[in-house]
Amino acid sequence: MKKILIANRGEIAVRVMKTVKKMGIQTVAVFSEADRNAPHVLLADEAVCIGEAQSNKSYLRGDKIIEVAKSLQVDGIHPGYGFLSENADFAEAVENSGITFIGPKSKAIKIMGSKLAAKETVKEYDIPMVPGIDEAITDVDKAKEIASEVGYPILIKASAGGGGKGMRIVEKEEDLESGMKRAISEATSAFGDGSVFVEKYVKSPRHIEVQVMADTHGNVLHFFERECSVQRRHQKVVEEAPSSILSPELRKKMGEAACKVAKSCDYVGAGTVEFLMDADHNFYFLEMNTRLQVEHPVTELITGVDLVELQIKVARGEALPMKQEDLTINGHAVELRVYAEDPLNDFLPSVGNLESYQLPTGEGVRVDNGFREGMDIPIYYDPMLSKLITYGKTREEAIELMLEAIQNYKIKGVQTTLPFGSFVFAHEAFRSGNFDTHFVKTYYSPEKIKEQTAAEAEVVAMIALYQYLEDKKIVRLPSN
Ligand code: MV4
Protein backbone atom coordinates (compact mmCIF):
# COMPACT_ATOMS: atom_id res chain seq x y z
CA MET A 1 0.00 0.00 0.00
CA LYS A 2 1.47 3.30 -1.11
CA LYS A 3 -1.42 5.70 -0.62
CA ILE A 4 -4.32 5.70 1.86
CA LEU A 5 -7.40 7.92 1.80
CA ILE A 6 -8.89 8.77 5.16
CA ALA A 7 -12.66 9.06 4.77
CA ASN A 8 -13.22 11.08 7.92
CA ARG A 9 -12.55 14.38 9.69
CA GLY A 10 -11.56 15.74 13.10
CA GLU A 11 -9.36 14.02 15.63
CA ILE A 12 -9.74 10.52 14.20
CA ALA A 13 -8.64 11.60 10.70
CA VAL A 14 -5.56 13.20 12.28
CA ARG A 15 -4.94 10.15 14.47
CA VAL A 16 -5.09 7.74 11.52
CA MET A 17 -2.88 9.96 9.33
CA LYS A 18 -0.15 10.07 11.96
CA THR A 19 0.26 6.29 11.78
CA VAL A 20 -0.10 6.16 7.99
CA LYS A 21 2.73 8.70 7.71
CA LYS A 22 4.83 6.83 10.26
CA MET A 23 4.54 3.77 8.02
CA GLY A 24 5.87 5.73 5.05
CA ILE A 25 2.53 5.70 3.24
CA GLN A 26 1.08 8.75 1.42
CA THR A 27 -2.12 10.29 2.84
CA VAL A 28 -5.18 11.71 1.12
CA ALA A 29 -7.72 13.79 3.05
CA VAL A 30 -11.26 14.50 1.93
CA PHE A 31 -13.07 17.49 3.35
CA SER A 32 -16.28 19.47 3.25
CA GLU A 33 -16.58 23.19 2.59
CA ALA A 34 -16.76 23.76 6.36
CA ASP A 35 -13.40 22.04 6.89
CA ARG A 36 -11.16 23.80 4.35
CA ASN A 37 -8.63 24.79 7.02
CA ALA A 38 -9.13 21.90 9.38
CA PRO A 39 -6.05 20.14 10.81
CA HIS A 40 -6.72 16.89 8.94
CA VAL A 41 -6.64 18.79 5.64
CA LEU A 42 -3.38 20.57 6.46
CA LEU A 43 -1.73 17.35 7.63
CA ALA A 44 -2.46 15.29 4.51
CA ASP A 45 -0.16 15.00 1.50
CA GLU A 46 -3.16 15.60 -0.77
CA ALA A 47 -6.64 16.89 0.05
CA VAL A 48 -9.83 17.03 -1.98
CA CYS A 49 -13.05 18.91 -1.29
CA ILE A 50 -15.99 16.54 -1.69
CA GLY A 51 -18.96 18.81 -1.08
CA GLU A 52 -20.99 21.06 1.14
CA ALA A 53 -20.83 21.13 4.91
CA GLN A 54 -23.76 18.83 5.63
CA SER A 55 -22.51 15.27 6.14
CA ASN A 56 -24.90 13.81 3.58
CA LYS A 57 -23.35 16.10 0.98
CA SER A 58 -19.75 15.31 1.88
CA TYR A 59 -18.51 12.77 4.44
CA LEU A 60 -21.40 10.41 3.73
CA ARG A 61 -20.97 10.58 -0.06
CA GLY A 62 -19.36 7.18 -0.55
CA ASP A 63 -19.62 7.45 -4.34
CA LYS A 64 -17.66 10.72 -4.43
CA ILE A 65 -15.05 9.43 -2.02
CA ILE A 66 -14.44 6.34 -4.16
CA GLU A 67 -14.24 8.55 -7.25
CA VAL A 68 -11.54 10.69 -5.59
CA ALA A 69 -9.69 7.57 -4.43
CA LYS A 70 -9.66 6.12 -7.95
CA SER A 71 -8.52 9.35 -9.57
CA LEU A 72 -5.61 9.70 -7.12
CA GLN A 73 -4.62 6.03 -7.37
CA VAL A 74 -5.33 5.32 -3.74
CA ASP A 75 -4.71 1.71 -2.54
CA GLY A 76 -6.68 1.73 0.69
CA ILE A 77 -9.52 3.64 2.39
CA HIS A 78 -9.59 4.04 6.16
CA PRO A 79 -13.12 4.98 7.31
CA GLY A 80 -12.36 5.99 10.93
CA TYR A 81 -15.46 5.79 13.14
CA GLY A 82 -18.96 7.16 12.46
CA PHE A 83 -19.85 8.35 8.95
CA LEU A 84 -19.36 5.42 6.50
CA SER A 85 -17.35 3.19 8.84
CA GLU A 86 -20.14 0.66 9.46
CA ASN A 87 -21.89 0.99 6.13
CA ALA A 88 -21.75 -2.48 4.53
CA ASP A 89 -22.69 -1.13 1.09
CA PHE A 90 -19.80 1.35 1.19
CA ALA A 91 -17.31 -1.34 2.23
CA GLU A 92 -18.54 -3.49 -0.65
CA ALA A 93 -18.38 -0.63 -3.16
CA VAL A 94 -14.80 0.10 -2.10
CA GLU A 95 -13.78 -3.53 -2.61
CA ASN A 96 -15.58 -3.68 -5.96
CA SER A 97 -13.63 -0.66 -7.14
CA GLY A 98 -10.38 -2.54 -6.55
CA ILE A 99 -9.43 -0.53 -3.46
CA THR A 100 -8.83 -2.12 -0.04
CA PHE A 101 -11.35 -1.23 2.64
CA ILE A 102 -9.36 -1.01 5.88
CA GLY A 103 -11.89 -2.87 7.96
CA PRO A 104 -13.90 -6.09 7.93
CA LYS A 105 -15.67 -7.61 4.95
CA SER A 106 -19.11 -6.15 4.26
CA LYS A 107 -20.74 -9.45 5.27
CA ALA A 108 -19.43 -9.13 8.85
CA ILE A 109 -20.55 -5.49 9.00
CA LYS A 110 -24.01 -6.50 7.84
CA ILE A 111 -24.37 -9.33 10.35
CA MET A 112 -23.26 -7.24 13.32
CA GLY A 113 -25.43 -4.32 12.22
CA SER A 114 -28.43 -6.44 13.15
CA LYS A 115 -28.68 -7.56 16.76
CA LEU A 116 -30.83 -10.54 15.81
CA ALA A 117 -28.48 -11.64 13.01
CA ALA A 118 -25.60 -11.28 15.48
CA LYS A 119 -27.33 -13.50 18.05
CA GLU A 120 -28.11 -16.06 15.36
CA THR A 121 -24.51 -16.08 14.15
CA VAL A 122 -22.84 -16.54 17.54
CA LYS A 123 -25.39 -19.16 18.67
CA GLU A 124 -23.15 -22.21 18.21
CA TYR A 125 -20.13 -20.58 19.82
CA ASP A 126 -21.10 -20.93 23.46
CA ILE A 127 -21.17 -17.19 24.18
CA PRO A 128 -23.10 -16.08 27.29
CA MET A 129 -26.23 -14.15 26.28
CA VAL A 130 -28.86 -12.31 28.30
CA PRO A 131 -31.85 -14.68 28.86
CA GLY A 132 -34.56 -13.91 26.34
CA ILE A 133 -35.59 -14.65 22.79
CA ASP A 134 -33.31 -14.42 19.79
CA GLU A 135 -35.84 -13.87 17.05
CA ALA A 136 -38.12 -11.04 15.98
CA ILE A 137 -41.37 -11.17 17.88
CA THR A 138 -44.74 -9.58 17.07
CA ASP A 139 -47.13 -11.78 18.98
CA VAL A 140 -47.94 -10.31 22.41
CA ASP A 141 -48.90 -13.68 23.91
CA LYS A 142 -45.58 -15.15 22.89
CA ALA A 143 -43.79 -12.15 24.41
CA LYS A 144 -45.73 -12.68 27.64
CA GLU A 145 -44.68 -16.31 27.68
CA ILE A 146 -40.98 -15.42 27.27
CA ALA A 147 -41.26 -12.62 29.84
CA SER A 148 -42.72 -14.87 32.50
CA GLU A 149 -39.99 -17.42 31.79
CA VAL A 150 -37.12 -14.94 32.24
CA GLY A 151 -38.93 -12.82 34.83
CA TYR A 152 -39.78 -9.11 34.95
CA PRO A 153 -38.54 -6.46 34.38
CA ILE A 154 -37.82 -7.17 30.74
CA LEU A 155 -36.34 -5.01 28.03
CA ILE A 156 -37.78 -4.75 24.53
CA LYS A 157 -35.08 -3.95 21.99
CA ALA A 158 -35.08 -3.07 18.31
CA SER A 159 -32.96 -5.40 16.19
CA ALA A 160 -31.71 -2.53 14.04
CA GLY A 161 -31.24 -0.19 16.97
CA GLY A 162 -28.09 1.37 18.27
CA GLY A 163 -27.25 3.75 21.05
CA GLY A 164 -30.26 2.74 23.08
CA LYS A 165 -32.79 3.82 20.45
CA GLY A 166 -35.97 1.77 20.36
CA MET A 167 -35.44 0.24 23.82
CA ARG A 168 -38.30 -0.11 26.30
CA ILE A 169 -38.29 -1.40 29.87
CA VAL A 170 -41.43 -3.30 30.89
CA GLU A 171 -41.93 -3.84 34.62
CA LYS A 172 -45.07 -6.00 34.62
CA GLU A 173 -47.21 -8.10 32.32
CA GLU A 174 -50.07 -5.61 31.97
CA ASP A 175 -47.66 -3.05 30.46
CA LEU A 176 -46.22 -5.45 27.93
CA GLU A 177 -48.70 -5.00 25.12
CA SER A 178 -48.49 -1.19 25.01
CA GLY A 179 -44.68 -1.30 25.46
CA MET A 180 -44.32 -3.67 22.56
CA LYS A 181 -46.57 -1.66 20.27
CA ARG A 182 -44.58 1.47 21.01
CA ALA A 183 -41.24 -0.24 20.54
CA ILE A 184 -42.35 -1.64 17.17
CA SER A 185 -43.65 1.69 15.89
CA GLU A 186 -40.55 3.52 17.18
CA ALA A 187 -38.25 1.01 15.49
CA THR A 188 -40.25 1.18 12.27
CA SER A 189 -40.03 4.95 12.03
CA ALA A 190 -36.41 5.21 13.22
CA PHE A 191 -34.85 2.31 11.28
CA GLY A 192 -37.45 1.22 8.74
CA ASP A 193 -37.33 -2.16 10.45
CA GLY A 194 -39.87 -2.95 13.15
CA SER A 195 -38.22 -6.17 14.35
CA VAL A 196 -38.04 -6.25 18.14
CA PHE A 197 -37.01 -8.90 20.63
CA VAL A 198 -37.23 -9.40 24.36
CA GLU A 199 -34.49 -9.81 26.99
CA LYS A 200 -34.34 -9.94 30.73
CA TYR A 201 -33.52 -6.43 31.95
CA VAL A 202 -30.13 -6.32 33.68
CA LYS A 203 -30.66 -3.70 36.37
CA SER A 204 -27.27 -2.25 37.31
CA PRO A 205 -25.02 -3.27 34.48
CA ARG A 206 -21.51 -2.22 33.67
CA HIS A 207 -20.52 -1.79 30.05
CA ILE A 208 -17.32 -3.68 29.40
CA GLU A 209 -16.01 -4.16 25.88
CA VAL A 210 -13.15 -6.22 24.50
CA GLN A 211 -10.84 -5.04 21.71
CA VAL A 212 -10.19 -7.74 19.12
CA MET A 213 -8.07 -7.88 16.01
CA ALA A 214 -8.22 -10.58 13.35
CA ASP A 215 -6.02 -11.19 10.32
CA THR A 216 -6.75 -12.96 7.02
CA HIS A 217 -4.77 -16.03 8.16
CA GLY A 218 -7.27 -17.10 10.78
CA ASN A 219 -5.54 -15.51 13.79
CA VAL A 220 -7.77 -13.67 16.25
CA LEU A 221 -6.32 -11.85 19.26
CA HIS A 222 -7.90 -9.84 22.03
CA PHE A 223 -6.32 -6.75 23.53
CA PHE A 224 -8.15 -6.91 26.86
CA GLU A 225 -11.09 -4.78 27.94
CA ARG A 226 -12.22 -1.21 28.27
CA GLU A 227 -14.74 -0.11 30.85
CA CYS A 228 -17.22 2.43 29.44
CA SER A 229 -19.91 2.52 32.10
CA VAL A 230 -19.75 6.28 32.59
CA GLN A 231 -22.05 7.54 29.88
CA ARG A 232 -24.94 9.94 29.55
CA ARG A 233 -27.88 9.11 27.34
CA HIS A 234 -25.89 6.36 25.64
CA GLN A 235 -23.06 8.77 24.89
CA LYS A 236 -19.82 7.61 26.49
CA VAL A 237 -17.94 10.32 28.38
CA VAL A 238 -15.23 8.51 30.31
CA GLU A 239 -13.49 5.25 29.45
CA GLU A 240 -10.67 3.29 31.00
CA ALA A 241 -8.49 0.25 30.55
CA PRO A 242 -8.29 -2.14 32.19
CA SER A 243 -11.61 -2.37 34.06
CA SER A 244 -11.12 -2.02 37.81
CA ILE A 245 -13.34 -5.02 38.57
CA LEU A 246 -12.13 -7.88 36.37
CA SER A 247 -10.14 -10.75 37.84
CA PRO A 248 -7.49 -12.28 35.55
CA GLU A 249 -9.74 -15.36 35.18
CA LEU A 250 -12.77 -13.31 34.16
CA ARG A 251 -10.63 -11.24 31.79
CA LYS A 252 -9.41 -14.41 30.09
CA LYS A 253 -12.96 -15.75 29.77
CA MET A 254 -14.28 -12.51 28.28
CA GLY A 255 -11.31 -12.23 25.95
CA GLU A 256 -11.90 -15.76 24.68
CA ALA A 257 -15.63 -15.13 24.26
CA ALA A 258 -14.85 -11.96 22.27
CA CYS A 259 -12.48 -13.90 19.97
CA LYS A 260 -15.20 -16.47 19.37
CA VAL A 261 -17.65 -13.73 18.39
CA ALA A 262 -15.08 -12.47 15.86
CA LYS A 263 -14.55 -16.00 14.51
CA SER A 264 -18.29 -16.58 14.16
CA CYS A 265 -18.52 -13.91 11.43
CA ASP A 266 -15.08 -14.45 9.80
CA TYR A 267 -13.99 -11.09 11.14
CA VAL A 268 -10.96 -9.27 9.76
CA GLY A 269 -9.42 -6.13 11.25
CA ALA A 270 -10.12 -4.21 14.46
CA GLY A 271 -13.42 -4.79 16.22
CA THR A 272 -14.99 -4.38 19.62
CA VAL A 273 -17.21 -6.89 21.36
CA GLU A 274 -19.57 -5.29 23.87
CA PHE A 275 -20.69 -7.05 27.01
CA LEU A 276 -23.00 -6.19 29.87
CA MET A 277 -21.83 -7.26 33.31
CA ASP A 278 -24.33 -7.65 36.15
CA ALA A 279 -23.73 -7.02 39.85
CA ASP A 280 -22.66 -10.68 40.33
CA HIS A 281 -20.05 -10.33 37.57
CA ASN A 282 -21.94 -12.46 35.06
CA PHE A 283 -21.22 -11.17 31.58
CA TYR A 284 -23.44 -11.26 28.50
CA PHE A 285 -22.70 -10.56 24.84
CA LEU A 286 -24.52 -7.47 23.60
CA GLU A 287 -23.22 -6.55 20.17
CA MET A 288 -20.09 -6.12 18.10
CA ASN A 289 -18.86 -2.80 16.71
CA THR A 290 -17.12 -3.36 13.41
CA ARG A 291 -14.81 -0.34 13.48
CA LEU A 292 -12.00 1.33 15.36
CA GLN A 293 -13.63 2.89 18.42
CA VAL A 294 -13.33 6.42 19.78
CA GLU A 295 -11.85 5.01 23.00
CA HIS A 296 -9.14 2.85 21.35
CA PRO A 297 -6.28 4.95 22.83
CA VAL A 298 -6.70 3.56 26.35
CA THR A 299 -6.07 0.09 24.93
CA GLU A 300 -3.01 1.34 23.03
CA LEU A 301 -1.53 2.83 26.19
CA ILE A 302 -1.86 -0.30 28.33
CA THR A 303 -0.74 -2.74 25.62
CA GLY A 304 1.85 -0.63 23.80
CA VAL A 305 0.41 -1.46 20.38
CA ASP A 306 -0.62 0.93 17.62
CA LEU A 307 -4.04 -0.38 16.63
CA VAL A 308 -4.16 1.64 13.40
CA GLU A 309 -0.82 0.17 12.35
CA LEU A 310 -2.20 -3.32 12.95
CA GLN A 311 -5.34 -2.47 10.97
CA ILE A 312 -3.19 -1.47 7.99
CA LYS A 313 -0.92 -4.51 8.26
CA VAL A 314 -3.90 -6.83 8.39
CA ALA A 315 -5.49 -5.01 5.42
CA ARG A 316 -2.25 -5.59 3.47
CA GLY A 317 -2.69 -9.30 4.11
CA GLU A 318 0.05 -9.63 6.72
CA ALA A 319 -0.31 -11.96 9.68
CA LEU A 320 -0.66 -10.38 13.12
CA PRO A 321 2.91 -9.89 14.38
CA MET A 322 2.25 -11.21 17.90
CA LYS A 323 0.62 -14.06 19.79
CA GLN A 324 -1.91 -13.82 22.59
CA GLU A 325 0.77 -14.78 25.14
CA ASP A 326 2.88 -11.80 24.03
CA LEU A 327 0.16 -9.36 25.05
CA THR A 328 0.15 -8.05 28.61
CA ILE A 329 -1.43 -5.18 30.49
CA ASN A 330 0.99 -2.51 31.61
CA GLY A 331 -0.35 0.23 33.87
CA HIS A 332 -3.70 1.96 33.60
CA ALA A 333 -5.21 4.52 31.21
CA VAL A 334 -8.26 6.77 31.46
CA GLU A 335 -9.92 8.87 28.77
CA LEU A 336 -12.18 11.90 28.82
CA ARG A 337 -14.08 12.98 25.74
CA VAL A 338 -13.89 16.76 25.58
CA TYR A 339 -17.04 18.04 23.89
CA ALA A 340 -18.04 21.60 23.04
CA GLU A 341 -21.16 21.12 25.16
CA ASP A 342 -22.35 22.99 28.21
CA PRO A 343 -22.60 20.71 31.24
CA LEU A 344 -24.46 23.46 33.11
CA ASN A 345 -27.08 23.66 30.38
CA ASP A 346 -28.17 20.08 29.74
CA PHE A 347 -25.07 19.44 27.60
CA LEU A 348 -26.38 21.56 24.74
CA PRO A 349 -23.83 22.00 21.95
CA SER A 350 -21.80 25.16 22.59
CA VAL A 351 -20.63 26.14 19.14
CA GLY A 352 -18.59 29.23 18.46
CA ASN A 353 -15.01 30.29 17.94
CA LEU A 354 -12.09 28.74 19.83
CA GLU A 355 -10.61 32.06 20.98
CA SER A 356 -8.07 30.24 23.12
CA TYR A 357 -7.22 26.61 22.68
CA GLN A 358 -4.19 25.27 24.52
CA LEU A 359 -3.76 21.61 25.28
CA PRO A 360 -2.08 19.89 28.21
CA THR A 361 1.23 18.12 27.59
CA GLY A 362 3.65 16.05 29.59
CA GLU A 363 4.62 12.51 30.42
CA GLY A 364 1.63 10.20 30.59
CA VAL A 365 -0.60 12.73 28.82
CA ARG A 366 -1.96 12.07 25.31
CA VAL A 367 -4.35 14.39 23.53
CA ASP A 368 -5.98 13.21 20.30
CA ASN A 369 -7.13 16.48 18.85
CA GLY A 370 -8.86 17.78 15.75
CA PHE A 371 -8.96 21.53 16.38
CA ARG A 372 -6.77 24.64 16.51
CA GLU A 373 -6.94 28.04 18.21
CA GLY A 374 -9.05 30.51 16.22
CA MET A 375 -11.16 27.84 14.51
CA ASP A 376 -14.93 27.94 14.41
CA ILE A 377 -16.60 24.76 15.57
CA PRO A 378 -18.85 23.62 12.71
CA ILE A 379 -22.44 22.99 13.70
CA TYR A 380 -22.77 20.15 11.22
CA TYR A 381 -20.83 17.45 13.02
CA ASP A 382 -20.34 15.77 16.35
CA PRO A 383 -19.08 18.48 18.76
CA MET A 384 -16.17 16.45 20.17
CA LEU A 385 -13.06 18.66 20.24
CA SER A 386 -10.49 16.19 21.46
CA LYS A 387 -9.86 13.23 23.71
CA LEU A 388 -7.71 13.57 26.78
CA ILE A 389 -6.02 10.33 27.74
CA THR A 390 -3.72 9.87 30.72
CA TYR A 391 -1.58 6.91 31.64
CA GLY A 392 -0.03 5.86 34.95
CA LYS A 393 1.45 2.82 36.61
CA THR A 394 -1.72 2.56 38.70
CA ARG A 395 -5.35 3.63 38.29
CA GLU A 396 -4.86 6.26 41.02
CA GLU A 397 -1.87 7.72 39.20
CA ALA A 398 -3.76 7.90 35.89
CA ILE A 399 -6.71 9.62 37.60
CA GLU A 400 -4.47 12.16 39.38
CA LEU A 401 -2.74 12.97 36.10
CA MET A 402 -6.15 13.34 34.46
CA LEU A 403 -7.36 15.86 37.07
CA GLU A 404 -4.15 17.84 36.62
CA ALA A 405 -4.29 17.72 32.81
CA ILE A 406 -7.92 18.91 32.81
CA GLN A 407 -6.74 22.03 34.67
CA ASN A 408 -4.03 22.56 32.07
CA TYR A 409 -6.47 22.87 29.18
CA LYS A 410 -6.97 26.55 28.34
CA ILE A 411 -10.14 26.97 26.30
CA LYS A 412 -11.97 30.24 25.72
CA GLY A 413 -14.92 30.92 23.44
CA VAL A 414 -17.01 27.83 24.08
CA GLN A 415 -18.22 25.78 27.04
CA THR A 416 -16.81 22.27 27.30
CA THR A 417 -17.30 19.06 29.24
CA LEU A 418 -13.94 19.54 31.02
CA PRO A 419 -15.55 20.59 34.35
CA PHE A 420 -17.85 17.58 34.05
CA GLY A 421 -14.73 15.43 33.64
CA SER A 422 -13.27 16.87 36.86
CA PHE A 423 -16.51 15.98 38.58
CA VAL A 424 -16.39 12.35 37.41
CA PHE A 425 -12.71 11.72 38.14
CA ALA A 426 -12.92 13.32 41.59
CA HIS A 427 -16.05 11.39 42.52
CA GLU A 428 -15.78 8.81 45.28
CA ALA A 429 -17.94 6.29 43.36
CA PHE A 430 -15.68 6.51 40.32
CA ARG A 431 -12.48 6.41 42.34
CA SER A 432 -13.60 3.39 44.34
CA GLY A 433 -14.54 1.56 41.15
CA ASN A 434 -18.00 0.98 42.56
CA PHE A 435 -20.21 2.37 39.77
CA ASP A 436 -22.42 1.23 36.90
CA THR A 437 -24.09 2.66 33.78
CA HIS A 438 -26.36 4.76 36.00
CA PHE A 439 -23.42 6.81 37.36
CA VAL A 440 -24.30 10.12 35.66
CA LYS A 441 -28.03 9.86 36.34
CA THR A 442 -27.38 8.92 39.97
CA TYR A 443 -24.73 11.45 40.94
CA TYR A 444 -24.63 14.34 38.51
CA SER A 445 -26.43 17.66 38.63
CA PRO A 446 -25.17 21.04 37.38
CA GLU A 447 -25.04 22.17 41.05
CA LYS A 448 -22.16 19.71 41.57
CA ILE A 449 -20.03 21.63 39.08
CA LYS A 450 -21.09 24.96 40.55
CA GLU A 451 -20.06 23.75 44.03
CA GLN A 452 -16.78 22.51 42.62
CA THR A 453 -16.11 25.80 40.83
CA ALA A 454 -16.89 27.70 44.04
CA ALA A 455 -14.51 25.49 46.02
CA GLU A 456 -11.78 26.03 43.43
CA ALA A 457 -12.40 29.78 43.43
CA GLU A 458 -11.99 29.71 47.20
CA VAL A 459 -8.61 28.02 46.92
CA VAL A 460 -7.47 30.51 44.27
CA ALA A 461 -8.65 33.41 46.49
CA MET A 462 -6.76 31.97 49.47
CA ILE A 463 -3.57 31.68 47.46
CA ALA A 464 -4.00 35.27 46.21
CA LEU A 465 -4.60 36.49 49.75
CA TYR A 466 -1.57 34.64 51.05
CA GLN A 467 0.56 36.09 48.27
CA TYR A 468 -0.80 39.56 49.01
CA LEU A 469 0.08 39.27 52.69
CA GLU A 470 3.51 37.88 51.87
CA ASP A 471 4.16 40.76 49.46
CA LYS A 472 3.10 43.26 52.09
CA LYS A 473 5.54 41.68 54.55
CA ILE A 474 8.38 42.08 52.04
CA VAL A 475 7.44 45.68 51.29
CA ARG A 476 7.18 46.49 54.97
CA LEU A 477 10.41 44.85 56.10
CA PRO A 478 12.79 47.75 55.32
CA SER A 479 10.58 50.29 57.04
CA ASN A 480 10.26 48.16 60.24
C1 MV4 B 1 -29.40 -3.76 28.13
C2 MV4 B 1 -29.47 -3.19 29.42
C3 MV4 B 1 -30.01 -3.97 30.42
N1 MV4 B 1 -30.46 -5.20 30.17
N2 MV4 B 1 -29.86 -5.01 27.92
C4 MV4 B 1 -28.06 0.21 25.86
C5 MV4 B 1 -27.57 0.40 24.48
C6 MV4 B 1 -27.51 -0.93 23.86
N3 MV4 B 1 -26.27 -1.08 23.17
C7 MV4 B 1 -27.67 -1.91 24.95
N4 MV4 B 1 -28.06 -1.17 26.13
C8 MV4 B 1 -28.47 -1.80 27.24
N5 MV4 B 1 -28.91 -3.09 27.08
C9 MV4 B 1 -30.39 -5.69 28.92
N6 MV4 B 1 -30.87 -6.93 28.70
C10 MV4 B 1 -28.98 -1.90 29.60
C11 MV4 B 1 -28.49 -1.19 28.51
C12 MV4 B 1 -28.02 0.14 28.82
C13 MV4 B 1 -26.68 0.48 28.67
C14 MV4 B 1 -25.72 -0.40 28.15
C15 MV4 B 1 -24.42 -0.04 28.02
C16 MV4 B 1 -24.01 1.24 28.37
C17 MV4 B 1 -24.91 2.13 28.86
C18 MV4 B 1 -26.25 1.77 28.99
C19 MV4 B 1 -27.17 2.70 29.50
C20 MV4 B 1 -28.47 2.34 29.64
C21 MV4 B 1 -28.90 1.07 29.28
From TrEMBL:
Its EC number is 6.3.4.14. Residues 119-316 form the ATP-grasp domain. InterPro entries: Acetyl_CoA_COase_biotin_COase (IPR004549), ATP-grasp (IPR011761), BC-like_N (IPR005481), Biotin_carboxylase_complex (IPR050856), Biotin_carboxylation_dom (IPR011764), Biotin_COase_C (IPR005482), CPAse_ATP-bd (IPR005479), PreATP-grasp_dom_sf (IPR016185). Residues 1-445 form the Biotin carboxylation domain. The keyword Ribonucleoprotein does not apply. GO terms for molecular function: biotin carboxylase activity. Keywords: ATP-binding, Biotin, Ligase, Magnesium, Nucleotide-binding. Coiled coil: none annotated. NCBIfam families: accC (TIGR00514), PRK08591.1 (NF006367). This is Acetyl-CoA carboxylase biotin carboxylase subunit.
